[in-house]
């Protein structure tokens, strides 16, 4: 009688009382089980590359900030600004890249941990239903949408974190699952819709509660990201089973709408906050940048005599007394009765006469 053999190593296999035998021997079966466990633990890293990449970028930025002395549990404001936080006056003043970088910066360890936990769960689901590059586009555009609404609500605000982008993914999933044409069962569709509604509703309520208690939760950023995600999720879900060009068109249209919204915001609020931008440049001892910003502002707002006082004081600090004198005199031509400019000019003339 020929004994059955292991398909892997060829060893003879025991036959049970019913005449049956396993496919693999105990040794080979144990190895296969071990490899399967490793695959389960690491498979999502490769199966969901977009979620892995986005998480890795957030973690890398956090490590970089810690290593450069920003802190750990809570980062200081100057470090957040230096790494690309969305600070209204700076963003509106021309540093538009902050709309993107703010989505990868966090205020500290706890902030990062909570957001990465949400991103890891929702990102994988989005990749499975929408696709890899689609998930990346939703994250990036929803992050920008959240940042825009945040500074539109309060141009002086300070915003960081991936939560706007995460709310965007949740919004896209909600719209895509509920109204799209995704390849999922009716039961799964119902369960996912309920989960997304609960996630979004609960986090909006928590954000409102924390803000009411003096916390730093920016629900406007959450809302902006969520709305952007909703607008993207419906066509993304509807076109999921068709040509990807439809989904690409959705991304391009969304980017165009956000660009137009950003342009309107800059035109409306661009004049405000110049003093803060100049002040930040002075803190960094970047005097040439401060002077350039003030000269540009005066060129477009020649009637704002207070800016002449600001610029003249910088010239004085740099021992450029002739330029300071000329600047004060130009300001007084616009408003001869301004007490600040009069004092500035008298002080400078008194210094020169000594």
Describe the structure using short key phrases.
single chain, mainly alpha
Q: Multimeric state of these chains?
A: single chain
What is the overall number of helices?
A: 16
* N→C terminal distance: 119 Å
Determine the structural class based on helices, strands and strand pairing.
Answer: mainly alpha
Question: How does this structure look, described?
Answer:
- The chain has 354 residues and is mostly helical.
- It is built from 16 helices and 2 strands.
- The longest helix has 27 residues, at 186-212.
Care to give the gist of this entry?
The protein is mainly α and 354 residues long.
Outline the fold blueprint.
Blueprint: H1 26-47, H2 49-67, H3 77-83, E1 86-87, H4 88-92, H5 98-101, H6 109-129, H7 132-153, E2 158-159, H8 163-179, H9 186-212, H10 219-238, H11 244-269, H12 274-283, H13 287-300, H14 305-317, H15 321-334, H16 339-353
Antiparallel strand pairs: 1-2
Helix pairs in contact: 2-6, 2-7, 6-7, 6-8, 7-8, 7-10, 7-11, 8-9, 8-10, 9-10, 10-11, 12-13, 13-14, 14-15, 14-16, 15-16
């Amino acid at each position: 009688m020929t004994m059955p053999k292991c398909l892997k190593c060829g060893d003879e296999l025991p036959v049970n009382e019913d005449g049956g035998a396993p496919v693999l021997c105990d040794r080979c079966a144990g190895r296969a089980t071990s490899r399967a466990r490793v695959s389960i633990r690491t498979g999502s890293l490769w199966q969901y590359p977009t979620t892995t990449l986005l998480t890795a970028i957030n973690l890398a930025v956090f490590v970089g900030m810690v290593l450069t002395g920003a802190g750990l549990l809570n980062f200081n404001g100057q470090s957040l600004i230096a790494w690309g936080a969305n600070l209204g006056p700076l963003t509106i003043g021309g540093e538009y890249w902050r709309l993107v970088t703010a989505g990868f910066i966090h205020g500290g360890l706890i902030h990062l941990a909570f957001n990465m936990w949400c991103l890891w769960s929702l990102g994988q689901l989005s990749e499975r239903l929408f696709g890899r590059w689609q998930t990346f586009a939703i994250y990036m555009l929803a992050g920008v949408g959240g940042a825009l609404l945040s500074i539109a609500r309060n141009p002086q605000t300070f915003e960081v974190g991936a939560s706007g982008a995460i709310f965007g993914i949740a919004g896209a999933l909600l719209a895509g699952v509920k109204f799209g044409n995704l390849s999922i069962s009716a039961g799964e569709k119902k369960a996912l819709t309920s989960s997304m509604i609960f996630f979004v509703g609960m986090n909006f309520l928590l954000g409102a509660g924390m803000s009411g208690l003096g916390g730093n939760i920016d629900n406007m950023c959450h809302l902006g990201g969520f709305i952007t995600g909703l607008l993207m999720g419906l066509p993304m879900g509807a076109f999921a089973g068709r040509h990807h060009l439809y989904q690409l068109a959705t991304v391009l249209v969304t980017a165009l709408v956000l660009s137009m919204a950003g342009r309107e915001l800059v035109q409306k609020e661009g004049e405000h906050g110049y003093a803060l931008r100049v002040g930040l440049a002075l803190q960094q001892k970047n005097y040439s940048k401060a002077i350039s910003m003030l000269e540009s502002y005066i060129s477009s707002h020649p009637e704002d005599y207070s800016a002449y006082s600001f610029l003249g004081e910088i010239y004085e600090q740099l021992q450029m007394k002739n330029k300071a004198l000329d600047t004060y005199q130009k300001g007084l031509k616009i408003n001869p009765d301004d007490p600040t400019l009069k004092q500035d000019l008298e002080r400078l003339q008194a210094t020169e006469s000594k």
